[in-house]
Amino acid sequence: MLQVRDLRVRYGAVEALRGVNLDVREGELVALIGSNGAGKSTCLKAIAGLQRPVGGSVRFGGEELARSPAHRIVGRGIVLVPEGRRLFADQTVLDNLLLGAYRRRGTAGRTGLHARAELAFARFPVLRERRDAPAGALSGGQQQMLAISRGLMALPRLLLLDEPSLGLAPLLVRQVLDVITGLRHQGMTILLVEQMANLALRIADRAYVLVQGEIALQGTSQELLDHPDIARMYLGRRAGATERPRAATSLNHAKEGL
């Protein structure tokens, strides 16, 4: 579904992405992990059209979108749930949901849009209780639920999730990740950037490790969970301490080491 090739992004003289290659197949949940400043959010913004790349290709369903404006990309079915939620704080919960569907209204009419909102309320019942409250009055966890729901209102074919657990209490993290897992089981295609690498790898099909703007490792989630460098650098384990035998024979290396 998504094919990214040699994607390069600069911020002035700083090269944030240096030839990133990644693929997401239909129905997959793919994780992109790495340390702060590795370029993970930049990668999602470039795919979503919020950051114009200086080189490379972003093909979605065979169509080149690398230099398309963000509103056109949303119209094609790629929807970003950004880091930090970015809600309309002075608008109600319901209005935020309806605004999320702006580029994908189709012929549904207001009745159809409210039917989509009802699905969001069924997924997160607390949002139903706060439907007339301004989004800025919600707790951090409720705001994240609203941000995900707003993204789903656009009927994404590919959902880009940027740090959905950021700033949430552990119980809310588990709830949000359960929702993401549920979307995957429903057939949603997801590219997930997540600071909690252990949790991301446990719900994803495959993953990429981004280091200083380049893909350093890629493989199935289990292969990366078993990799000693990943265990040491991102999962808080000492190499060789508790991990299962290394599955290096099938791990695809984009470069040697991390």
What features would you describe in this structure?
By secondary structure, this protein is an alpha/beta fold. The chain has a domain of 146 residues: P-loop containing nucleotide triphosphate hydrolases (Rossmann fold), CATH 3.40.50. It is built from ten helices and eleven strands. The strands form two sheets. It has a seven-stranded mixed sheet, with helices on both faces. The protein has a four-stranded antiparallel sheet with strand order 2-1-4-5, with helices on one face. The longest helix has 16 residues. The C terminus is likely disordered.
Largest sheet: 7 strands, mixed
Strand order of the largest sheet: 6-7-8-3-9-10-11
Alpha-beta classification: alpha/beta
**What letter string, H or E per element, gives the SSE order?**
EEEHEEHEHHHHEHEHEEHHE
In total, the number of strands is: 11
Q: N-to-C terminal Cα separation, in Å?
A: 28 Å
CATH architecture of the domain at 1-77 and 190-258: 3-Layer(aba) Sandwich
CATH class group of the domain at 1-77 and 190-258: Alpha Beta
CATH superfamily of the domain at 1-77 and 190-258: P-loop containing nucleotide triphosphate hydrolases
CATH topology of the domain at 1-77 and 190-258: Rossmann fold
Helical residue percent band: 25-40%
Runs with pLDDT <50, length 5+?
239-258
Query: How many distinct helices?
Result: 10
CA-based gyration radius:
18 Å
